[in-house]
Amino acid sequence: MSASASRTEAAPACLQLQDVTVALGSQRVLDGVDWQLPCGQVVGLLGPNGAGKTTLIETLLGLREADAGEALLFGHCPQALPDDVRARIGYVPQRSDLFEWFTADQLLAYFRSFYPRWNQAKADALMTRWDVARDKPIRQLSGGQQQRLSIIRALAHQPELLVLDEPTAGLDPAARRDFLGELVDQVADRGTTIVFSTHILSDLERVAVDVAFLTGGRIALHAPLDELLESSVRLGGVPADIERFVRDHQLQALSRDARVPVIARGRAASAIPPATPTVSVDPATLEDLFLALTA
Fold it and tell me: Quick check: 282 and 273 in contact, CB under 8 A?
């Protein structure tokens, strides 16, 4: 039994998608997605541009209604969450949805009234550390400052579920590092469930315990990151030799697309055979896995 399977049995599901389909015009962005996330898990959501990551996140949170299937958030329909359940969720969207005519202080004071667990000391500390101007209208803040403020708003009420859609896209390297440190040291350590969608694989490797790959409108693979890397290799050589190697050693080829390296999985590192004179065997990276699964 895999580590992710045993965690799923040990913890109740925080969010669930069952056969969820969402179409935008004539295109099915999500095509029968089945996915569940146990409470307390930290998962990185990966997929190429246009794969539907934002659509999936919006469907989970009730910001977009599925055309078919069922979504559940803490056991409730996302479109009809009780106030006490909604207060347990933090969300940083890909594009800022702040009230731009407010100042930062006014915005945080407004949201504080909705959250009984609001931690003003934490909000003040982050505002100071991340150098967010308190008395300027939000529309006058830089894009990076607006993104910092959006993150502070999501963290200040200490949510049980934190959903992040490309949260570091507008941040400079120093701000990214500080945010990721906050996420690892303060948020994940409390047992918060985190869904982290990003294109920056190095950020994800620092934060995520599990990774889920969204491609072709479905979750193609969801597994613990360390287990996935340990059990995967990059194969090189003539295609016919690689094909024979995969078959003879009962490996699972994740991709045979000629544009990307062949990545194969075994049951564990000990199950991966050594290289042969015609086939090279090297450890796979997260970038290798991303390319193989989303080619």
Answer: no
- Render 72-115 in DSSP notation, one character per residue: EETTB-GGG--HHHHTTEEEE-SS----TTSBHHHHHHHHHTT-
Q: What's the token pair of residue 220? A: 């193609």
Rounded CA-CA distance 289/280 in Å is: 17
- Residues 104-142 have pLDDT tens digits of 999 999 999 889 899 999 999 999 999 999 999 999 998
Burial of 71 (0-12, 13-18, 19+ CB in 10 A): buried
pLDDT per residue over 170-208, tens digit each? 788 888 888 888 888 777 778 889 999 988 898 888 888
User: Half-sphere exposure of residue 184, counting CA atoms within 13 Å on the CB side?
Assistant: 13
Which strands, in side-by-side order, build the sheet including 210-215? 89-92, 161-165, 193-197, 42-46, 210-215, 218-224
Quickly count helices (H) and strands (E) in the chain: 11, 13
- Phi and psi for 60 in degrees, rounded to 5? -60, -40
Q: How far apart are CA 106 and CA 243, in angstroms?
A: 62
Spatial neighbors of 239 by CB under 8 A, at least 6 apart, are 256, 258
Task: Kindly report the pTM of this predicted structure.
Answer: 0.87
Question: HSE on the CB side for 103, CA within 13 Å?
Answer: 8
